[in-house]
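MODEL INPUT / OUTPUT PAIR
PAIR INDEX: 1
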Amino acid sequence: MSAMTPETLLPDTCAWIDFFRGSQTPLAEALERGLVQGEVAICGVILYELIQGIKNPMEELLFLNASQAVKHLEMSAELWIKAGRLCADLRREGHTLPFSDIVIAILALEHELSVLTIDTHFDMIPGLKVAKG
C-alpha cells in the first residue's frame, strides 16, 4: 500500500465482520471501497478480535490473505502512554471504553485515519475522525 492519506480508514472489527459475511451494509460497502482504493489499515487488536471469532480454517485463511493487502499499524511505547492517558481522561469524564477501542482510537489519531464503525462511543474521543459507512 502507498503512503496513507487522510481518507485512509481504520475499520473497526464490526466493519470487517460485515464485509466477510457478505452483508450489504454501509460499513461493508465503505470497507470494500477502501480496499479497492488501497486506503485501509489494520492493527493487532483488530486482528486478534477477528481471528478469535473465526469459526473455520477456510475463513481464517481468507481473512489472513486479505489482511496482507493492507497497512499494519503497530503500537510504540509512546502510543501506549498516550492510550493510557486517553483512557484516564475519558474515565474522569465518566466514560469507560473497551481497551481495544482505545488502542484503535490512538492509532487512528496518530496516523490521522478515520475509524470506520457503528460504535457511537468513538464519537466521545476528541479529534478522532469517525466514518459511519
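PAIR INDEX: 2
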Amino acid sequence: MEKSKYFLLATAMLTLASCFSDEGNYDYDAPLVINVEGIEKSYSVSPTGDILQINPVIKPAGRDYDCFWTVTSASATWGDKVDTISRSQNLEYKINLDMGAYKLRFNAKDRLTGVFSYTEYDLSVTTDMETGWWILKTIDGNTDIDFFSNEKAKPDVIMNANGQRLNGEALNVDYTSNFWKFNADKQTDERVSAVFVASKGDIAALDYFTGRIISNYDQLFVDAPAKHEVRGMFTGPSDTHVYVDGHIYTMYHSKYSIYNQFVIKALGDYDIAPQHHAAGSLPLLFNRANSSFCSVSRTSSTIDYFKNSSPSPIQMNMDLEYIGGKTTASWTQGDMALALMKGKTDGKHYLLQLDGQPYTMDYNPIWDVKEMPADLGLYKAEHRALNQNNNIVYYSIGNVIYSCNLDNWEEAKADVTLADGEEITYMEYLKYAPYGYNETWFDYLVIATSKGDSYKLCLHPVAAGRIQPAQKTLEGKGKVQRACYMRQEDGYVYTSTLF
C-alpha cells in the first residue's frame, strides 16, 4: 500500500511540472527533405545496344550525396534481390536485361545528416527488332549483323548483344520459328524464333527479338566438327543444313518436338558447289566431284541423287556458275530455278530450267536445257541476280551493272550509276509477299557497295524489268554479304526470299 502512495505522489509532481513553460533558448532546424527532379515516370528500352542515360537533379543543391541506382523485376517483393547498376548520380547503363517489366530505383543519401531517400520508376525492356532489315556483313575480318527498322538503326547487333562477333567472314543467314531452348527459370524447353548466322569459321543461333546467342557452334552439334570450316548453309522443307568440315549436317525444326542440334551427318565423298537453290523444299545442290545435281534431307544419312533420265542430272560434265530462283505465284516463291552452266569439254554455256521445289528424289528436276550464245557479257559477271518475275538476270562487271534478257539474249547497261571508288559486294533480287498481307509486299533488286570501311545497301524497285532509282539506302560499316527483311505479323515472322 505504501508503494502505491509513493507512485501516486510522483505522478502528481510530474503532472504539475508539465504545466510550467520552458523558457530556455533553443534553436530547432527543419528536417532535411531530399527531392529529385529530371527523371521521367517511365522508360522503354531495347535489350540490344540501348544505353539508358538519366541525369537527375537533387535538391537541396550544394550538398554532398552518395547515390546509386538499382533495378529489380516489377513483380519482385521486398525480400527479392535487387541489382545495383550504377553508383553515380548520373546514370549511363548499357542495357543487360531480359525483356520484361522492371522497377528502376534512384537512391540518394546526404553525407552530413545520413538522411536517405529513394524514388522508383517504371522500366520496360522490349524488343525493337520485330520488323526490319537484317544485314549480314563482314567487319574487321569477322561477322556481325546490322538491323534497320523504319525508326532506327542498330549496328553490330551480335557484338552489342554478346560482347563478340562470329569468327571469320560472313557467309549466310537463315530463320526458323521452331527452335527449342531450355528455360532455366521455368526448368522447361520452350519454342522460340531464331536467326541462324553462318560465317566461314562459326555458326550461331540468335534470338530473333534480341540478337543474343541462344546456341553457339559447340552447342549446335551433337558431335561438333573439330575443324571450324563452314562452307555453306541452306534450308529444307522444315530443316536447316550446314556444310562444315567437308560434310553436310541437318537440324530438323518441329513445332511440337524438341530439336535444337544438327544430328544428321550426310556421309560420302562430295564437293558441294557454293551456288544452290533452296525454296522450302528439297534443296537443289550440285556435287562438283561428279558433276551431278543432288540434295539432302532429314530422312537420309547420305547425299541423294535425282532420277537419271534425259536430260540427265547425273554425270553432266558441266560446271555450275550460277543458279537463281523465279516465283510464278506469290504462294510458291522460288518454284522455278534457272541455272547457268558451262560444259567442261566443249566450253559452251547452257541455260537449264529446273523445278525449284522438288519434293522427291524419284524424278528428274530438269525441265529444259538450252544452249546459250558464245559472246555474252553475263559470263564475265562478278555478281548476278535473277528477276523472280521474268527471265532477266542482272549482273555486274566492276562497278557497272548490266541486264541480260534470257529469252532473246539481249544485253544492256542498266541505268544505275555508282560513285567513284564504290565496289559492288552483293546483288540479289528479293521478294516479300506473305499471304494475306498484300499491303506489305515488295520486290527489290538489292545492290550493296563498299568504299573504305563503309557500305551502302540500295533497294531498287524494278518496273517492266528496268531498274528504278533506289527507294531506300541503308548505310553502315563493313562489307555486306546478304540482306533479309523480316517482319512479325500476328505473332508469326515472315521473311523476304532466302533462296
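PAIR 2 NOTE: Residues 108 and 117 are 5 Å apart (CA to CA).
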